[in-house]
Specification:
Blueprint: E1 2-8, E2 25-26, E3 37-38, E4 51-66, E5 77-95, E6 98-109, E7 116-118, E8 127-146, E9 151-169, E10 180-198, E11 201-211
Antiparallel strand pairs: 1-4, 1-11, 2-3, 4-5, 5-6, 6-8, 7-8, 8-9, 9-10, 10-11
């Protein structure tokens, strides 16, 4: 099973603040402005991405399945759009402009549209389908801050877990007799961009590719 996930509207709890430099004039009047001394501006406090965060995500993607038919009467690939949403939790460390950390998330998925295999030549018509009901990942993140330090570009990768349901309908009565449900383990990889909009709030966009591996099951009347 393959699934591509886009996360947007990410809300996290990052610490830090950016303080704009200030210049103040001391003493005197407009007549002797040339003699005024400028106070040294306070140092700019760089934004910090370090620390614990928790947030929510919502987005869309494409869930796909590859079907290996010994008698090639079916198309081998189907995919369909899904909605996905959930939450994430993580912790960041920061050294200079480099930010690294760990993140875990859990999301629910809608059933994909058109993710079914239909034969156009066999009689009765066999139908096969699959869907992922939930998806979770545990990933490392490695990124770098750019510009004013409030923007983070990162890559991510790690383990993925998902609940897969598949069925096969080959009986003349068209009853699904080969149901299969299992929690699958695979991998996830991707990247994203995150923007700190205030000292404790960020918003971001992330893209992930998730592969939950393959399985085989022989048809039977059981």
């Amino acid at each position: 099973m393959n699934l591509s996930k886009i996360k947007s509207g990410v809300l996290t709890g990052a610490a830090g603040a950016a303080v704009a430099p200030m210049v103040a004039l001391a003493g005197g009047s407009a007549a002797d402005a040339a003699d005024l001394a400028l106070k040294a501006p306070p140092p700019v406090v760089a934004p910090s991405w370090a620390g614990f965060y928790i947030g929510a995500n919502i987005g869309g993607g494409s869930e796909g399945s590859y079907f290996n038919d010994p008698a090639p009467i079916l198309p081998s690939w189907r995919d369909g759009g899904v909605l996905i949403g959930g939450g994430q939790i993580g912790y960041n460390w920061q050294q200079g402009t480099f930010v690294y950390g760990l993140e875990a998330d859990f999301s629910g998925l809608t059933k994909p549209g058109s993710l079914f295999f239909h034969s156009t030549t066999a009689n009765p018509i066999p139908t096969y389908g699959s869907s992922i009901s939930w998806l979770s990942t545990v990933r490392g993140r490695l990124g770098v801050t750019v510009g004013d330090g409030n923007t983070l570009l990162y890559g991510t990768g790690g383990a993925a877990f998902g609940r897969v349901h598949a069925f096969a309908n080959e009986m003349p009565s068209y009853k699904a007799y080969n149901d299969y449900s299992s929690t699958r383990v695979g991998w996830a990889a991707g990247g994203g961009i995150e923007r700190m909009i205030s000292p404790h709030w960020t918003i971001g966009l992330e893209g992930l590719f998730v592969d939950l591996g393959s399985y085989s099951k022989a048809s039977s009347d059981a």
